[in-house]
Amino acid sequence: MEYLPKAQQASTPLAWCQAAVSCLRAFLSQNPDEQQETLSKRAVKSVSVPKKSLNPSIPPWSPDNPRGSIKLTLACNHLAPTSFHERLIQAKYPYVSVNSYTEGGGGAGVLKQGVAHFLTRLYKLDRINKPIDPSWIRITPGATGTLEYMAFGLSDPGDTCLVPAPLYGGFASDVKRMGLEVVPVLADADTGFVPPTKVLTKARQSVWMQGKKCNILLLCNPCNPLGLVFARDGLASMMKWAVNNGMHVVSDEIYAGTCHTSTLPFNSVWKIAQEDLNEQQQQRVHLITSLSKDFACP
């Protein structure tokens, strides 16, 4: 690529990174025919996003532009970064091992201990004397990557996963990269947007009739895009149905720390698993969280 020498001539790591980003942007600005010669077909398809969705024609809202647009398609926390970043700068970790692979690829022990402590408090597991063990935690680069790992480890290409609908649109592309197909299971306000077990059973049977397997029940709680939390009874019902049918429950809970006080409190699937499921069933329950929402670190 003719852009590469610019990165090679950079004098500092920061300058190199900036030059590398410029190279990537220049490459992606090529037309699809030129990209096709270098990228795989699925990569070309992934980067071929309509520009209209990324660059709205109406300038964003600001005090000086009261008629500007407000993007509702991105879940960004603009209130937390300042205070969080100030705290992050003050943090001091005298652990050399966190900058190496001496503890394996699943995350440094000190980090997993901190995450376990935080989640135990967030999910109120300390109240039932069921703290999260740091050894149960795996650190990955983002919730999307974690979901891909889960899809890779729990299903095979051509399998499906059930997702209560309305659902987060990104799930379909996240698991599709691992060869999975999302099967929406519609629910409505009368049931708190929790599909009854008979509806879940019908959806799973329909998948099996097509010769496909269904090993995952994928949840998003608190729910994107509905902006609500599922009632505990509804969650417990779905979880018991899934594990009793030999399925895994994967719950995306990246908004767990952003819930406001309401008459319907947030309940993590992990807390319900500790209270309602036996030890063998608990091994089929997995949760995903991230720094991207609660800590505004996408």
Automatic annotation (TrEMBL):
Highest taxon in the source lineage: Eukaryota
Domain Aminotransferase class I/classII large: 110-298
Entry keywords, A to Z: Pyridoxal phosphate
Pfam families assigned: Aminotran_1_2
Gene3D superfamilies: Type I PLP-dependent aspartate aminotransferase-like (Major domain)
Extent of the signal sequence: none
InterPro entries in alphabetical order: Aminotransferase_I/II_large, Ethylene_sulfur-biosynth, PyrdxlP-dep_Trfase, PyrdxlP-dep_Trfase_major
A biological process term (GO) from this entry: amino acid metabolic process
GO molecular function: pyridoxal phosphate binding; transaminase activity
Entry keyword annotation includes Repeat: no
Matching PANTHER family: AMINOTRANSFERASE CLASS I_CLASSII DOMAIN-CONTAINING PROTEIN (PTHR43795:SF39), BIFUNCTIONAL ASPARTATE AMINOTRANSFERASE AND GLUTAMATE/ASPARTATE-PREPHENATE AMINOTRANSFERASE-RELATED (PTHR43795)
Protein name in UniProt: Aminotransferase class I/classII large domain-containing protein
Gene source species: Prymnesium polylepis
UniProt lineage: Eukaryota, Haptista, Haptophyta, Prymnesiophyceae, Prymnesiales
